[in-house]
Fold each of these.
Amino acid sequence: MVWNEITELEEWEAILEKSVDKDQVILKHSTTCPVSFNALDEYNDYLADTPDTNIDYSLVKVRESRPVSNQIEADLEVKHESPQIIYIKNKKAYWNTSHWSVTKAHMKAVID
C-alpha cells in the first residue's frame, strides 16, 4: 500500500469530502525535521504491512504545502504539529497523534 501526496487545496477538499464514504489517514510531514523522518519511516513500515483496506492514506509536506497544512488544521480543528498523523471519518478528526507517538505499533492499535 502507498500514500498519495497532497499539494493542492482542491486535493485536500476532495479527501475531506471522500471521508464521508471512506476513512482517510494523513501524515503531516516536515522535510527538515529528524523526528518527522522517523515518523515517515514508521508510516511507510505500517503501510508495507497493511493489506488493501477501505482506507486511503495521504501525506502533506507542511513546509512545501503550507496552505494545505493550514486548511487541514482549520477544517478539522486539530492544532498543527509535525510530524502528525490524523485519522479522518465523516469530515472529522477521529484520532490524531504527533511526534514520537507516530509509530507503526500505535497506528496498528488504532487504525487496525
Note: The chain is about 40% helix and 25% strand.
Amino acid sequence: MLVEDDAVIGLTIEQALLDAGVADVTICPTTDQALAALRDKQPEVIVLDVHLADRDDGWAVAELVQTLGPDSPRIIFSTGMPQDIPKDIAEMGCVLEKPYDAQVLVDLLREPQRRGIISRLRGALSHN
C-alpha cells in the first residue's frame, strides 16, 4: 500500500514497484482512504507519506497498524521533513527522505526486515 497525496510521486513509485515484481499496489491519497483500504485488506508493506493534504500526522496510520500485532505490515515512512516525525513513531519503521530515487525503496524492500535499520538509514541520510 502506498499512502501518498502527490499524484506524480505516487505513480512513479507505483511503476517502480510494479517493474520490480510487486503484484498489487494500492495508492491511497488520503488518510481516510488508507484506513478504508486497511479494513479491506492488510498489505505486507505500507509506504507512508506523513504529511498528507487531509492530515498532517500521517503517522497516525502507522500507530493504528502497530496495533495489529506481530503480523502487522512493514512500515516505510516517506517524507520531506523527517525531523517532524516523533522519535517513537519513526522507530516503527524506516524513514526515506524525499526526494529519493524509487530504486532506493525497491532495494530496501528486497532486504529482510531488521531491527535497527532506522538508525542506519538516518545515519546515512545525515551524512549526505
Note: Residues 11-103 form a domain with the Rossmann fold fold (CATH 3.40.50.2300).
Amino acid sequence: MNKEDCFYLGKIVKKYSFKGEVLAKLDTDQPEVYEHLETIFLELRNNLVPFFVEYAQLHKSELLRIKFEDVDTEADADSIMKSNLFLPLDLLPKLEGNTFYFHEVIGFTVMDKNYGHVGMIKSINDSSAQALFEIESNGKQILIPMNDEFILKVDRNTKTILVETPEGLIDLNF
C-alpha cells in the first residue's frame, strides 16, 4: 500500500496495558466510525505495514484503545509506539455539500464571485492558525483563507470551488 493511496488516521500515543494494547489519538471529529476496523496500516521505517485489529474501542471519547494481533507484550507495544496510522482512501466517509477533505480539492479550480477565475489549488497550508488554499495563477501563488464564509459552493462534478473573498484580497497576492 502506498501512502498516496491512504489518509492519515492518527498516531499511537501510549501503551494501555501490559498485554500489548495501545491508545491512538485519531485525527477525526467522529472517532466512533473507526471502532470496527479489521486492518490499520502503521508507518514503520517509512513503510506502511498492515496490522490486523483484534478489537478496538473508544477510550475517554477521544482516544481509540486498540489491540493488534501479534502485539501481545509491552515490548511489542514499545516497537510500534508513536507510529502514524493510515487507512485506504476508499474508507473515508463521503462528504457532501461544501464540506471536503483537504486532499480531495487539490487540483480544483477556484472561481471568485466578483474577481472571476483565480487559479488551481496546488496544496492546503494548515500549519498556520487558519488553513489556506495555496492557489497557482499564471506562475504566481495566491493564498486564500479557508473560511466557511468565503466558500459559496464546492462542485465535485466540475472540480470547482466558488468563493466570495473580501474586496482586494486576491489583488494583495499580486
Note: Helices lie at 74-80, 169-172.
Amino acid sequence: MKIEFWSDIICPYCGLMDNRLRLALGRFEHADEVQVVHRSFQVHPDLPRQGVAQRQLLRMHDIPAQDGERMFASIEGAAHAEGLDPYHAMDRTLGPTDYAHELLALATDKGRGGEVWTAMFRAHFGARRELWTKEQVLDFAAGAGLDREEAAQALNQRRYRGRVAADQREAERLGAHGTPFMVIDGRYAVPGAVGTEALLSAMAQAWEAAHLVPRPLQILGTTDENDATDAACGPDGCAVPPHPAP
C-alpha cells in the first residue's frame, strides 16, 4: 500500500495528521507493507520572507478573532490529548515554506523524508521555529543531522523547486484545495484532518479493496458527523470546523 501525504509545515492540521498517521500505522496489521510518501503543498507561498504573526494573518483574511481563537484552541487541545505538547497553533509566526519544502525533498532523497518532516513539524509547532529564510532552513538542516553544505548547495541551485511545484500541481489535479490531503494507492482520497480511528478505517478499507477493479478516486476518512473532514488549511487560512477535530 502506498500513502501519499500532501502537507505544509505551517498547517496545524497537518502536524496533527502526521502524528495520527504514525498512530494508525502502529495499529495497522500490514504496516510493514505500507510506503508513506510525503509531498509538498504550500498554503501561503506569497507571505513575506520575514514572516507574519498568526493573528495578523487572521486579520488579513477577515477572520474574526474569536473564531480564530476557538479554532486554534481546539487544535491545541487535540494535540495535547495526543501527546504533542507544547503545540503552538496560535502564538507563532508564519512565512513562505518554499526553502523548507526543498530541504524536505533533499531529506527524502537521503532516505530520511518521514523523520525530517516530523522533526520540522515539531520544530515549528513545538518550539515556534521560523523556517522561512535560507539561513533558518540551513540551521534546521544541521540540527536535523543533514549536511549543511550539501543542503546549501541544493537551496542555492533551487535543485528541488520543480519537484515541489509538481507535487502541488498533482494534488490540485486530484481535487485538493488545501492541506492535509492523503491519497491511498492512487484511488482513495482522505481530505482534511480526520481522527486516528477514521484514518485506520480508511487504510483497512483501501487494503481490502486492493485487488478489486480500479475505480475513480473516492473520498474516505469519515465515519460519523464528528469527523472534521473540513478541518484543513488553504490560501485563505484554516477552516473553522463545525466540531473540534478529534
Note: DSSP finds nine helices and nine strands in the chain.
